[in-house]
Amino acid sequence: MTSPLISSSASRLLMRHYRLASVTATKKNYHRCTSNNAQNNNISLPEQHSLSNGTLRHKLRTGQPTLGVVTGFHNDTDHAETLGLLGYDFLWADAEHSTANASTVANLILAAERRGLPTLVRIGYGYQNVIGHSQKFLVAGAQGIILPQCESADDVHKIVDAVKFPPIGRRGLAGERWNAWGLSGQKNGGGDVTLADCVRTSNDNSIVGVVVESRRGIEALDEILSVEQIDFVFVAPTDLSADMGLHGQIRHPDVVDMVDKAGQTIRAAGVSSGMLALNGDDYVKYRQLGFQVMVGVAHTMFAEGARSLKSRAEDYESSGGE
Prior knowledge:
Strand content: 5-15%
Strand order of the largest sheet: 1-2-3-4-5-6-7-8
């Protein structure tokens, strides 16, 4: 495992400090991407899409703790609303380890947005056209994209190209959910927010995350972290354990040690590091190690709740109702 050179780390930290000032200013003065023109014509627009609010990206870029939930329950929207009501920071919609597609994820996003919960989508791995594949989820309303199996700076650049509009990336522009289907861009008739304003807001607030889940990815962290637009790097213990020949042993000392060292390298470059929290003990352990982006699993939450109730019921019945 490599560690960043002091000179390169210092340089990246200075660059991120400069970017942080920009993100902070945007957070204080973000555009809502709604227009007086639409209101004057009695067109009902969403109060505000999460992309108009720089809070989540600001927290990621400043290393503040954030708590999200990864979900493959793409056909159920109730749990997405519930997580929003409970105050989670973001929903991680999983299109890699599930049968989700852009249409089913769109329903999750609508439910989450209703409760002020931003959604990030982890796309599947191996698509030749990363930009085209990501675009479908961005059109659906995702605030950002998470790339699995990241192993190079080139991988990161592909996601930046997909998520960011020119001049930063290559994302295509059209009327979509995040900009109220272009209605926010109607300047004539008294509108005060243009589509160009919305593009600037999107570039400021959209999120680029990557998952490192192999020894090759960890060895490439220096070059991965050199991409300025990266907002967080999540270290995936399950796939990493498999790559190490310790399939599923995410708490094995060797796996934990490699995860810890990867997190140190990520944070040394001024980037937020992410880790799995299958329970409260995991959360505390990895927060104490310095990880900032903690992610629970919806299915685990459901299974643990169901197991706990069933176990308590069986104990009661087997004791004769005592």
